Amino acid sequence: MNGEKKKKIIKTIKVDVDKCNGCRACEAICSAFHATPKYSSNNPARSRIRVIHDPLRNVYVPVYAGEYTPAECMGRDKYVIDGKEYDECAFCRASCPSRDLFKEPDSGLPLKCDMCEDDPDVEEPLCVQWCISDALTYEEREEEVEEEETLDDLDIGLESLADKYGFDKLMDAVARMSMYKKG
Ligand code: SF4
Ligand code: SF4
């Protein structure tokens, strides 16, 4: 690490839980965008955003898929909202071995929000565009950060995925992703 700084764009999506009405349009468009070929199907299990529902209490919480984790947490969180206790891990963003959320339904590989693959044709994240309740707001800011050792990070990520899912399955998924990129 040589301590050099570089500019980085930090992309965030602000979630206003009070404005979410549980329509799940965000799930529909995200899953369609990530289908192969693009927009050929709509399966919320493929979405990188999932809406935790409790219609009787009018509680809807959109949760974005975050980092993959190879091990379960030793401690768990429990949330109580309007007097109702929600399942352990209900609002967690991780793709984790202890539950099915945020796993690609065909391959079982972990899902993570990729900001619509930074597709230049997508001006603003699709989930934000499709949320007509304005529960999701996209924001960008510039920050100075240390130079990243990105290749090391990639090695560690691939190694844990290969451990978890097996090398052949991982290579199949990479081959499918590269076909999808070309198409
Ligand atoms: S599109 Fe907006 S209002 Fe509808 S479920 Fe998603 S976040 Fe909630
Ligand atoms: S930003 Fe794009 S990839 Fe991320 S959840 Fe929204 S639609 Fe899906």
> SSE order in H/E notation?
EHEEEEHEHH
Small-molecule binders here are: iron/sulfur cluster
Radius of gyration: 18 Å
Percent in helix:
25-40%
Widest sheet: strand ordering? 1-6
Number of helices: 4
Shape: globular
Low-confidence blocks of residues: none
Let me know the number of strands: 6
How far apart lie the N and C ends?
A: 38 Å
Tell me briefly what this model is:
By secondary structure, this protein is an alpha+beta fold.
Primary descriptors:
183 residues, alpha+beta, two-stranded antiparallel sheet, 25% helix, globular, binds iron/sulfur cluster
Polypeptide structure, described:
The chain has helices at 25-33, 126-130, 150-165, 167-182, and strands at 5-15, 49-54, 59-64, 80-81, 84-85, 136-146. It is α+β, with helices and mostly antiparallel strands and 183 residues long. The strands form 3 sheets. The protein has a two-stranded antiparallel sheet with strand order 1-6. The radius of gyration is 18 Å and the shape is globular. One iron/sulfur cluster binds at residues 30, 33, 48-49, 64, 113-116, 125-127.
Task: Record the SSE blueprint.
Elements: E1 5-15, H1 25-33, E2 49-54, E3 59-64, E4 80-81, E5 84-85, H2 126-130, E6 136-146, H3 150-165, H4 167-182
Antiparallel strand pairs: 1-6, 2-3, 4-5
The protein binds iron/sulfur cluster (2 copies).
One iron/sulfur cluster binds next to helix 1 and strand 3.
